[in-house]
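If it is no trouble, can you show me the amino acids of a protein and the tokens describing how it folds?
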Amino acid sequence: MIKNWRVLKEMLRLRFHGIMVFRLDFFGPFFVDGSLFLVQLMAFSAIYANVDTIGNWGEGEMMMYIGTYSLLNAINMTLFFFGINGIPRKVKSGELDLYLSKPISPLFRLSFEQISPGSIPLILMSLCIIGYGMQMTDSTYLEGEILAYCFWIVIMEILYYELEVLIRSISLFIVTTANIEQIEAAGLSLCMKLPGIAFYGMYKLIFYLILPYGIMATLPVQSMIGEMNGKLALYGITVVILFTILTAMVWKQGLKHYNSASS
């Protein structure tokens, strides 16, 4: 753990040094992510302009939901998206060899070597939207509810990370994962607009278990507004544990299956 922390600090130092050499790499994401955030809000306004409620959620809860999904995505973009997203390319080019030859977990290095501080403003804007949604509900939120929300944000961010790693680990077995990544993008786009409470039947099976994007922002909001019960909490934690095990298995088996491009 101490070794990983030292490596992480060194990677951060090198990353910030490299970004500041080319200032556009630092300030560019501020504009791109800020524009994406505004587009998301406009899409929300267009979709829900004539809708009063979805299930038992009003506009305030939906605003919290949009802010929560944006928060999860912003943390993902800041910490590990750009590193994890490069796995298929590194597998195809053989660059993964360099990671396997170093005395540190290759997945750890891949995850955090491309940290993007340009996405931090989106985190702050997401928190503002969540706070605005909380005000719209006209409810008083206790410290315990806020702590529960923070707990589920951490848990769901882990699930987000695992799903990204799992999908890109498939590149260790097949030639391209482009089609699978398109499914991922479609699922994320849909669940960013609709909360999990809107899914029923087959759709709930897909987005609550097979591709559990539907629970990532739904459960944190439910914990905040008092809709979380023991059964739902147990389900959410179980899904994260199952995907943790599945991701670890697929990654380890993938590394055994991996043939260097130079061999």
Notes: The CA atoms of residues 3 and 103 lie 10 Å apart. The mean pLDDT is 84.
